[in-house]
Design a protein that fits this description.
The protein has about 180 residues and is of the alpha+beta class. Helix content is about 25%, strand content about 30%. The protein contains four helices and seven strands.
């Protein structure tokens, strides 16, 4: 089932999310629905707050990038209660967008390498060193679980330039290419 995506301005996107355990209700169905929602919106990552749930869960699917560029790992994973243990490497600038901020793309600096821990959908524990696009998408989705949006990494001047566009998005004035939840104050 395709779920509506929370749009910029919705307070859920600014919440620090809660950890979950294997007793979380209907988790398998939720994961299936999140993958379907992400693919319908042509995304490569989606977090639970983006579909209105304040829980520490996100998905990444880099297989579309891998098809175009085999050097990008073929990753399609579920991340439960993830943690970034450390960041290292160079600061790399890359253009990012977000399903919750439609029509906005900006150059964002992130570390090129991270050490992470997480649980999969069967609650098996993993520790990984990741880099490249995989690390970038992981950092982007991880930020969502802490109430941080990619635009928060912009300078005050860059944010000021975007302000009019962000205000329009908050008012629901954007091209709706997938089901969304707009927030009315």
């Amino acid at each position: 089932m395709i779920l509506p995506i929370s749009i910029y301005g919705n307070p859920i996107l600014r919440h620090k999310c809660n950890s979950i355990d294997s007793n979380y209700p209907n988790l398998n169905d939720l994961i299936v629905n999140m993958f379907e929602t992400m693919h319908n919106a042509s995304g490569i990552g989606i977090s639970a707050p983006q579909i209105g749930l304040p829980i520490r869960l996100f998905l990444i699917d880099l297989t579309p990038y891998h098809e175009d560029n085999p050097s990008i790992p073929k990753i399609k994973k579920v991340f439960i209660n993830p943690k970034i243990i450390s960041e290292s490497g160079q600061d790399i600038i890359h253009n990012e967008g977000c399903l919750s901020i439609p029509g906005v793309r900006e150059d964002i600096s992130r570390k090129s390498q991270i050490k992470v821990s997480y649980l999969d959908d069967k609650f098996n524990s993993y520790n990984e060193d990741i880099d490249g696009v995989y690390a970038r998408v992981f950092q982007h989705e991880y930020d969502h679980l802490n109430g941080v949006l990619f635009i928060d990494h912009l300078s005050p001047l860059q944010k000021n330039i975007l302000n009019k566009k962000l205000t329009r998005i908050q008012k629901g004035k954007f091209e709706e290419l997938y089901p969304t939840i707009k927030y009315k104050k």
